Amino acid sequence: MPTMTTEASADPPDYMTRDEALAALGIKAPTLYAYVSRGQIESRPIAGSRAKLFSRRDIELLRSRSDARSGFAPRGQTSMKWGEPIITTAVTELTQDAPKYRGRDAIELSRSGCTFEAVSQLLWSGEMPDERLVWNYHAPTLKIDRLVESLGIATPPEDVLKLFSIVVLALGLPQVGLDEPREGDASFAPRQILQVLSGCCGYLSAAGRFVEPEAGESIARIVCRASGVSQLDRVAAFVNAALIICADFELTPGAFGARVAASAGADIFASVGAGICAHSGVLTGRGADMAEDLLMHAGELSLQSESVTWRKHGRKLFGFNHTLFPKGDPRALALIDLAKQADPASPATRKALAFLKNAIDQYEAYPGLAVGLVVFCAALGLPRKSASALWAIGRTAGHIAHILEQRADGSVLRPRARYEGKSN
């Protein structure tokens, strides 16, 4: 039976006991409780006990600040773990209500009727074009089906994100070096990448092949036609909204990986490929596949087993209780609302919604983006693994924005490490 923590079980728990917290900070109990009362350390009760657990992230952040002031540790030690900002960006701001793309609320954009293409251009340039923008399609010289067949990749692929990264890197092979612009259009390569990835959703469908985009066809419609859904235009409107919701989330592992590659002079294809690879881990993009197994194919016993581990040891279920949104990710709630609008009476939708209600009521497990995507895709009847595919396609638009911003900055991202190994 699928579980949600097996592949991440080597990670330290998200919460510490009182004694562990005191030892980590080198303080006494009254000081610890003072930090809690001031809101600097989150605490949560242990079921059936008067004892409490304390947030490891908050403790590490406090310790790093103390060490940095004393000169004993680098200031960025926990900036890399949901800590303080280390990069200046004008692409996306994270707020409690929703991400803001160039100052515009992502969820409001998803409801405004503008296309994913228009939001992509907003992220890339900072200017909103015609809100109904759809890109022209120029077929690549690369034959996608021939590539996939030559590599012996099964369809549907076990890992759609690895397939996406391979295709993006291969798209760059016919190009020469950094010769990305075409006919003076610097966004040609980014547009082609997103269109081709959308056509690759055909590998998830019964057809099991690349679906060539048509002239004047939107990204959302390409995804839906490739996925083999009926009522194309109706479903495409929902998919368009989901892609916008997924488009960026500030400095994620994927965005950071893409920026690092771009800062070193990698071309757009290599930089996007790096972003997808960083996004493909089980704690990010591919975690949507695990969330799908839990919600749609495992059931109550799996959730109960995972939740017992979570409550006892402070380890979080992937897809639930996001660090920034512990009471529910607004992006997930928006996707679940779309699922209710799309087909509230379908068995898949009713099953998923009942599961989520039980997760909240019984285990205080509030949905994150991956879970919201799974519910959304189930309601629309999209093929399995479509949640991870939609997330990656949408997020690639954001990665491209970070790549372009990093290029404009012109500096190489090269953080330092503190050596803690043996010395002669």
Automatic annotation (TrEMBL):
Pfam families: Citrate_synt. Its EC number is 2.3.3.16. One of its GO terms (cellular component) is cytosol. Pathway: Carbohydrate metabolism; tricarboxylic acid cycle; isocitrate from oxaloacetate: step 1/2. It comes from the Bacteria. Keywords: Transferase. GO terms for molecular function: citrate synthase activity. InterPro entries: Citrate_synth-like_lrg_a-sub, Citrate_synth-like_sm_a-sub, Citrate_synthase, Citrate_synthase_sf. Transmembrane segments: none annotated. GO terms for biological process: carbohydrate metabolic process; tricarboxylic acid cycle. Signal peptide: none annotated. Belongs to the citrate synthase family. This is citrate synthase (unknown stereospecificity). The lineage of its organism: Bacteria, Pseudomonadati, Pseudomonadota, Betaproteobacteria, Burkholderiales.
